[in-house]
Amino acid sequence: MTAREIESTLGCVQDGEGSTMANTSKYQVNLDALIPRADLFERADSVVADTSAIRVSDLEPGVVYDMLRKPDFQRETNSWSPKQVARLIETFSKADIIPSVILWQSGNKIFIVDGAHRLSALVAWIRDDYGNGKLSADFFSGKIPDQQKHLDEETRTLVNNTVGPWIAHKKGGSMLNMKDVQIQWLKSPKAEQAAAAFIRINEGGTVIDPLEARILRAKRSALSIATRIISRGGTGHEYWNHFTDENAKERAPKLGAEIYKLLFSPTLETPIKTMDVPMAGFGYGVGALRVAFDLVGLANDLDVPDSSRSKGKDKDLADDLTGKDTITYLLKVRRSLQLVLSNEKLSLGLHPALYFYSGGGAFQPAALHNAVAWLLSLEKRNKIKKFLRVRRPFENLLLAHPVITKPATHKLGSGDRTRSKMLALFERAVDLLTDDRDQELAWKKLSKQFQYLAIDEAEEKAESKKGSRGKSFSSGAKSAATFVELSSVSRCALCGGLLHKNGKVVDHKDPKASGGSSASVNARWVHPACNSNRQTS
């Protein structure tokens, strides 16, 4: 039986760089903290290693474990579900075969060319850390997403119920202390050959996300670094550590943390029971990486395909050695998001549940990116006030016909391929409502000009009526019940648009400049931009 066949039996692909199971990224355990990274190209003299196995006890803190490294360009070790992690540990404990790990030695460092997930799963068992233990807490500076904490607990429960905690086997003198992992040594003396072997093994015959492969190929470009900084909120592996500009090195993780908070706070919980949803859904896994990548490209007007493009080759992206380009990218992303939803003066405070989520509570990245592009365009053309004048009827139109902001991707396509069509639709809606505030008249004209709208709406209504008799409500159905209440969300006292907790400020009904009091009876909630425009008009 080949290594590939063995791991398919386990439910894991070789090195775990994907999954044979139908996982989504938000259900994958983050083991990234358990084996540190190092520069594969750092030159060092090596003593030829000849051992053919590593004992599981060698994965405790000590000589062998302390030498283990992952290449610094490797993507996060977070491609396995709780069941897959538990299954690998159980398979190992029962003396079943698991594929050999491939290692390469450079000085006092042992790089894992193939097998990072396998070894990380065993280290997680030994250290009792499945994403929320001491190693992970230190690695992520204590900023661990709730979803990562939940997966840590779920994995621990599965492992303890099948194999038992490592500490119990160690104290009980179990023969598991003597079990080992078979290893193969990559004999190549050159780091370039080791790197080529790493990429070849991790792309050949495995399921690797196309976006992660693109980031890997341009690992030191400002686009890749900014994407990784945002998706992990400035925590985890320090992809910015090579920056020669000390100011950039210091600012990068702080900006990443700010942007992450704008995108993913408050934490999204399912089923959705509140309208206070985050701007961009779950802040975890490859979904967060995609959102970040596309925002960096969009906010900085970069000529690169968005994350939905799986084919073709990117243009060569220059390395950002100083860090200055990365900081520029991050600043533009932050400002773009502040325009969408924040408490900054420029913020329009768009309500995510109305603009970026489906009726069933699913976050739709394309809707967010389209809205960012649209608001940046309005700002550039000095048309923000025009939108604010018709915001109430515009949002009433969206409440009545949500397909306007969230079209079916199978008809228009996904990513930036739909953007020009969507921006034209938004512009037309604002123009129609400027001429006549009658939203249903505007809908009739829009659906006649953009004929797919009526078809999509009919399909959506038919789909919403489907359900299984005698069965419990699905998570989506429960979330949809919450979203029905969206029309009752409080509104801005100035423009009439929906208010979200992340994008509202207190305004004086009677202006303070005219002697208005600061008593509660004179206070009201408004969007920051509405408040700013009122003060300057």
Query: Globular, elongated, flat, extended or rod-shaped: what is the shape?
Result: elongated
Q: Strand fraction band?
A: 5-15%
Q: Look at the helices and sheets and give the structural class.
A: alpha/beta
Return Rg in Å: 26 Å
How does this model look, in words?
The chain has 537 residues and is of the alpha/beta class. It contains 23 helices and 8 strands. The strands form 2 sheets. Strands 1-3-5-4-6-2 form a 6-stranded mixed sheet, with helices on both faces. Strand 4 (101-106) and strand 5 form a beta hairpin. The protein is elongated. It starts with a helix and ends with a helix. 45% of the residues are buried. The model is unreliable at 1-23 (pLDDT under 50).
Which descriptors would you attach to this protein?
elongated; alpha/beta; 537 residues; disordered N terminus; 8 strands; 23 helices; 7% strand
Outline of this structure?
46% of the residues lie in helices and 7% in strands.
Topology:
Layout: H1 3-10, E1 37-38, E2 53-55, H2 63-67, E3 68-71, H3 82-93, E4 101-106, E5 109-114, H4 116-127, H5 134-139, H6 146-162, H7 166-171, E6 180-185, H8 191-203, H9 210-217, H10 222-231, H11 246-264, H12 285-299, H13 324-340, H14 352-355, H15 365-380, H16 384-389, H17 391-400, H18 409-412, H19 419-435, H20 439-449, H21 452-464, H22 475-483, E7 505-508, E8 523-526, H23 528-536
Parallel strand pairs: 1-3, 3-5, 4-6
Antiparallel strand pairs: 2-6, 4-5, 7-8
